[in-house]
Amino acid sequence: MSEVEQPDVSAYMSGARPEGTEEYVMQQTMVRVKDPKASLDFYCNVLGFKLLMYKELPQWKFNVYFVAPVDASTIPEEEDKRWAMCMNTPGCLELTWNYGSETEEGLVYNTGNADATGTSNGEKVKGGFGHIGITVPNVYRACERFKEMGVEFHKSPNAGGMKGLAFIKDPDGYLVEVLPQGKMEAEPIDCMGVPAEGGEGYKDNSK
């Protein structure tokens, strides 16, 4: 395999932000969901997010729900203040529910990871979207909790070649990466009984 020339990206790590962008916020990623209640149960009860703001838009036949890992006590009661907080909170997830999707059979939306959902010929597509990610104090303890709650795993912490991180699935099949907030260290056995030694190498999930 030929060696890939790596781009020099060091310049993007230093210096002031371009003029006029100083207060820009990376506020949201939007994903479409089949069943808003199932998705809110997952993101709020499994991952510990809170519903910051939601809007029901029957005239356009969809609703949006903004969730983020915040303390519920900080969420204002007044709608305009909730909206302002939401729009200034980095890393929100916007869950969009199009009316009627909840009645469709099986999975509805393509997750971007070598997924055939929604394709006309049933063939998998090379997607661009990969996953969202959370960080936790201890990946192994978090994954034990996820397993107890019946969460589906795409990769347990010791599976594959990259140890100490995991991927779980939300109700629509979107991947959520689980990373440590400190050093990435492997434990001998993970929640699925997979040992740290051995395992396959890295797999490109876009294909």
Brief sketch in words of this structure:
Helix content is 14%, strand content 23%. It contains three helices and eight strands.
Description:
It contains 3 helices and 8 strands. It has 207 residues and is of the alpha/beta class. The chain has a 4-stranded mixed sheet with strand order 1-4-3-2, with helices on both faces. Strand 7 and strand 8 form a beta hairpin. It is globular, with a radius of gyration of 19 Å.
Layout of SSEs?
Layout: E1 28-33, H1 36-46, E2 50-57, E3 62-68, H2 79-87, E4 92-98, E5 132-136, H3 139-148, E6 152-155, E7 166-169, E8 175-180
Parallel strand pairs: 1-4, 5-8
Antiparallel strand pairs: 2-3, 3-4, 6-7, 7-8
Could you name the key traits of this structure?
207 residues; alpha/beta; 4-stranded mixed β-sheet; 3 helices; 8 strands; 14% helix; globular
Mean pLDDT: 94
Given helix and strand content, the structural type is alpha/beta
Strand content: 15-25%
Stretches where pLDDT is under 50 for at least 5 consecutive residues are none
Assembly form of the protein: single chain
- How far from one another are the termini? 19 Å
Helix content: 10-25%
| Rg result | 19 Å
The helix/strand order is EHEEHEEHEEE
**Overall spatial form:** globular
Major sheet size, sense and barrel closure: 4 strands, mixed
Order of adjacent strands in the largest pleated sheet: 1-4-3-2
Number of helices: 3
Give the strand tally: 8
